[in-house]
Amino acid sequence: QVQLVEHGGGSVQPGGSLRLSCVASGGTFSTYNMGWFRQAPGKEREFVAAINWRASSIRYADSVKGRFTISRDNGKTSVYLQMNSLKPDDTAVYLCAADRNSRRTLLSSASQEYDYWGQGAQVTVSS
């Protein structure tokens, strides 16, 4: 069974930066496409970014493009989300997710297409 554990959440002032990491155990991480989603109180889960199994394809939500960077290290079975220029609207629980379908030609932004999920890390942006 695949387990995903997020690290690096916290509180930061607007304009600040945070780096989230997600460490996977079990399964075959190097064959999974990985995604980051977020969920704010009272709102639906929202796609943030995704990266394919060999890091040759990346996709971002328009709301984070130019501010967030997703990356991965298959040797460390980890995926990262570097978040810069953070805004109060970025406040949410951030979850990493794994998609077993590495043959997918377009990285998915749909949460139902991801098979495994972490428990999430709280990110709070406030002055």
Instruction: Indicate the proportion of strand residues.
Output: over 45%
**Structural class of the helices, strands and pairings?**
mainly beta
State the order of secondary-structure elements, H for helix, E for strand. EEEEEEEEEEE
**Distance, first to last CA:** 40 Å
- How many helical stretches? 0
What's the gyration radius in Å? 14 Å
Give the uncertain stretches in residue-range form: none
Q: How many E-type strands?
A: 11
* Main sheet specs: 7 strands, mixed
Mean pLDDT: 96
User: How helical, in percent, are the residues?
Assistant: under 10%
- What is the 3D form? globular
Descriptive key words:
single chain, 127 residues, mainly beta, seven-stranded mixed sheet, globular
How do the helices and strands line up, and which of them pair or pack?
Layout: E1 3-7, E2 10-12, E3 18-25, E4 33-39, E5 46-51, E6 58-60, E7 68-73, E8 78-83, E9 92-99, E10 116-117, E11 121-125
Parallel strand pairs: 2-11
Antiparallel strand pairs: 1-3, 3-8, 4-5, 4-9, 5-6, 7-8, 9-10, 9-11
